[in-house]
Backbone:
């Protein structure tokens, strides 16, 4: 059998009509809004009209990512298919991919191999238009803000203190810093500006954390777009933009229903990045998935220090969710990279490098068990080059923490390769009761919240606040935002804020450069290191290899 690409595997799949998948998910046809044969949106009224009790919630997270890859989405989908194979009623909840990575270097986010959600090309490209709606709402607010200034600036907005940016769902470094409003009086007020990628927009976070249309509108109206000459915040509500923005977003708020290669219902909705935003699919999709299945498998972006921390400390807290079990995904290859090996040296057995790299996995596992007090299993995504000795070494180390390790071969075998993991997850849900605890409480100061995450989750010694950040913290505290959770933006490649510190570094401090409020989302964004809210394309972007033939068949997506 020759090697098949993800897209070839996906295109060979005989998809079932989405109406059939809806039946599997216990969704009555009257709640389904079809987008073609294989995609649908689910009407939000279903949540109020069902009396089914919530199923078990399983979070899939991972070790600190490396260029060797971990396979978190693949494991999430394969685990769900594995649960289905052992007779469980299961749903998946995932994020939608951003076009930036699809055309850049990371590729899509629909899983891989024989553990994918389909139609893969649609999900990776425009899907049901949610991201376009988010971009449109974001840019409507920007247009209304600049128009308000042009038409006399009744709110007294200081153009040097505008915090709201325009956005586009593309990796386009050219747009990071722009000067606009040029061309004389009729063409706006000249000012410095910049673009974010759509997934970094606060509108994305707002959509993903909203619990209803009313909640969405209220959150939008609270968004702070800038400050007046005397430093008072100016909100979207004051610009009278929230109603029109909600009108643009009303369909985007409805979760999308698709299927895995094996016909498991999958709710794919929302897509904030986890290094700059909170990195989880929407609250609405998770709620719907929990109502429609006895087991719901979801994932949070990047390593557990980012995605899982934000899923637990922000999303679960706001939405009142409690996970029943957590899966931490690791690969032997990635752990060897954490142990100092180059990407080219991963195919040979190297227990010394593995021993140096495994503390990364152990710290993530310890955080889930000891900080958040949740039952946990390690899923080792097995590659053909992994040796039994390497696998046994990981199993023994995790056992010392009281955590089982299960091999997963879902990339090659689909749900069949996820059955063992599924059995361990069911055991955790049924036999081990967690005592879910947040890493910090909301009534502490902004500084204390950041310090709690850095010390408890990252394993750092403390935090250095730059003068600018101190000033911003004082201002946010004065404005009454100090009781919000913190969303820390940092590199995904290290527990620290320095991407070169691999493994499980100690003795470091995290430097906080800027602190700003996302008042609509309801969290404080804490910027560390060099985090870009607008990525750039690599030297050889994936877009160069994507094509479509005369029959409309797409190639080159991965």
Residues:
């Amino acid at each position: 059998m020759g090697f098949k690409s993800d897209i070839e595997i996906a295109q060979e799949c005989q998809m079932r009509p989405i109406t059939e998948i809806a039946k599997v998910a216990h969704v009555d046809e009257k709640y389904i809004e079809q987008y073609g044969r294989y995609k649908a949106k689910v009407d939000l009224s279903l949540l109020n009209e069902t009396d089914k009790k919530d199923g078990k919630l399983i979070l899939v997270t991972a070790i600190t990512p490396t260029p060797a890859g971990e396979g978190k989405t693949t494991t999430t989908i394969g685990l769900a298919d594995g649960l289905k194979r052992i007779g469980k009623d299961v749903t998946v909840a995932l994020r939608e991919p951003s076009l930036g990575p699809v055309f850049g270097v990371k590729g899509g986010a629909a899983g891989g191999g024989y553990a994918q959600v389909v139609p893969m090309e649609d999900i990776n490209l425009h899907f049901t238009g949610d991201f376009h709606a988010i971009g449109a709402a974001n840019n409507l607010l920007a247009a209304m803000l600049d128009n308000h200034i042009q038409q006399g600036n009744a709110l007294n907005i200081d153009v040097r203190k505008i915090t709201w940016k325009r956005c586009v769902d593309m990796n386009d470094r050219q747009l990071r810093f722009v000067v606009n409003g040029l061309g004389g009086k009729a063409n706006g007020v000249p000012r410095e500006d910049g673009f974010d990628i759509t997934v970094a927009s606060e509108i994305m976070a707002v959509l993903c954390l909203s619990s209803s249309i009313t909640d969405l509108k209220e959150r939008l109206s609270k968004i702070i777009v800038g400050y007046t000459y005397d430093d008072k915040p100016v909100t979207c509500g004051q610009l009278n933009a929230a109603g029109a923005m909600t009108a643009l977003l009303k369909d985007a708020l409805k979760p999308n229903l698709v299927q895995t290669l094996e016909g498991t219902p999958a709710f794919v909705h929302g897509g904030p990045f986890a290094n700059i935003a909170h990195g989880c699919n929407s609250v609405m999709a998770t709620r719907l998935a929990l109502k429609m299945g006895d087991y719901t498998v979801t994932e949070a972006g990047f390593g557990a220090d980012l995605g899982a921390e934000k899923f637990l400390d922000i999303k679960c807290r706001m939405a009142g969710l409690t996970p029943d079990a957590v899966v931490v995904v690791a690969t032997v290859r990635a752990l060897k990279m954490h142990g100092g090996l180059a990407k080219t040296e991963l195919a040979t057995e190297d227990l010394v490098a593995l021993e140096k790299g495994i503390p990364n996995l152990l710290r993530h596992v310890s955080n889930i068990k000891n900080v958040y007090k949740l039952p946990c299993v390690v899923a080792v995504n097995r590659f053909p080059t992994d040796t039994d000795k390497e696998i046994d070494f990981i199993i023994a180390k995790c056992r010392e923490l009281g955590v089982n390790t299960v091999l997963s071969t879902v990339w090659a075998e689909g749900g069949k390769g996820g059955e063992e993991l599924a059995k361990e997850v069911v055991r955790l849900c049924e036999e081990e009761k967690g005592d879910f605890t947040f890493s910090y409480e909301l009534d502490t100061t902004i500084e204390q919240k950041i310090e709690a995450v850095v010390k408890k989750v990252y394993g750092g010694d403390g935090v250095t606040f730059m003068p600018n950040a101190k000033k911003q913290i004082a201002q946010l505290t004065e404005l009454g935002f100090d009781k919000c959770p913190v969303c820390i933006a940092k590199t995904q490649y290290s527990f620290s804020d320095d991407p070169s510190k691999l493994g499980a570094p100690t003795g470091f401090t995290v430097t906080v450069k800027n602190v700003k409020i996302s008042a609509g989302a309801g969290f404080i964004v804490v910027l560390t290191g060099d985090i870009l809210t607008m990525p750039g394309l690599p030297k050889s972007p994936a877009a160069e290899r994507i094509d479509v033939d005369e029959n409309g068949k797409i190639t080159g997506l991965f």
In short: The chain has a mean pLDDT of 93.
